[in-house]
Write a structure and sequence with these properties.
With 91 residues, the protein is mainly alpha-helical. The chain has helices at 11-21, 26-34, 39-54, 59-88; strands at residues 2-4, 7-9. The protein has a two-stranded antiparallel sheet with strand order 1-2. It starts with a strand and ends with a helix.
Length: 91
């Protein structure tokens, strides 16, 4: 595992995302950093999170919630890499 800020990332995932982050130009990296989740999606995740805490998720909801969390982790890691890319290039 490799430490990245507050995130711990398996080196395989890091190895996949590092070359991808180098494909970003300054504008793309900045746009990625500005990316925000749609409020309707955030609201749905809040509902699923509450149900998860209560232990009342259906199997379908659990799958949906886990996929969303994995996607959010992926986006967070890619944003961190974009930020580092911009800093290393003086942008």
């Amino acid at each position: 595992m490799k430490e990245m800020g507050d995130l711990t990332v398996p080196t395989t995932l890091d190895g996949l995302l590092e070359p991808l982050s180098r494909c970003l130009d300054a504008e793309s990296a900045k746009r990625l950093l500005d990316f925000r989740v749609d409020p309707a999606i955030e609201a749905r995740l809040d509902i699923l999170g509450e149900k998860a805490n209560e232990g009342t998720l259906s199997d379908a909801e659990r799958s949906e919630y886990e996929a969303a969390i994995n996607a959010a982790d992926f986006i967070s890691i890619l944003k961190l890499k974009a930020q580092r890319h911009l800093r290393s290039n003086g942008s």
